[in-house]
């Protein structure tokens, strides 16, 4: 079975599409250029997933949106791979190009305590039990390493960059309820290499950076993203009756997150309120205009290019784990 089934060039500024075999009952659909993080491609992924949910394809049992891909599960007893690809191609022509999309998008405000004690505890355990010479650990933290890797003068410049943009939930996965967040303002792009090897422990609520994505850990788990701080719980997978988390994970595809800086003592108090069931998450339901986003990106394109050059130069100067 060939890995690549078909490639397709779609009209009207839609992304290119590559159809790949993924076993005998899955098709992996990739959008846009390989190894490129493209928010427009991600907008299109979710629009396709919503169209399939609203108008099911016969024989297709499930879709799983990713950063720039859509995994489609089908039943070989009801349909064939070629029929699924044909139906998907029709959907791609029906979905409007990203520039004309307005998508459901909630705005969620979360507190963040940078360089908190649980992050330092996870890093300390890593140094003792896994890799004492880890180059991404500076003075017991990952924050200073991330600041240098991104060409910032100090950690405060890193913090202000994270705080001044909203973060788009491009997909949820790897662990149940774990969001992968990309900056809506391209001038605020940050990146970091992952741990090598991974940590054996990460606190629930930990905020980390790996590649171009910020993540929030939904559970105590291993992890490989550079630790930046901690926020509130984002899942209720064990159905705690006192908890006021959503059912059972906080994040939906297309949510936008705004972080607000707090001291760790304040975060501890807010987390206590969550577990007691008295905290109300700050969620604003609405929609997001992709056209407005693209217009803003175009307006700051010179600054984006300048920031890209700064980031590229800084990366070359820092040792990768």
UniProtKB/TrEMBL annotation:
Recorded hits in SUPFAM superfamilies, A to Z, give: Cyclophilin-like, PH0987 N-terminal domain-like
The record places domain Carboxyltransferase at 17-245
- Pfam families attached to this UniProt entry: CT_C_D
Q: Which UniProt keywords apply?
A: ATP-binding, Hydrolase, Nucleotide-binding
Q: Is this entry keyworded Hydrolase?
A: yes
Alphabetical list of InterPro entries matching this protein: CT_C_D, Cyclophilin-like_dom_sf, PxpB
Name of protein: Carboxyltransferase domain-containing protein
Give the organism, scientific name: Streptomyces ochraceiscleroticus
The root-end lineage is:
Bacteria, Bacillati, Actinomycetota, Actinomycetes, Kitasatosporales
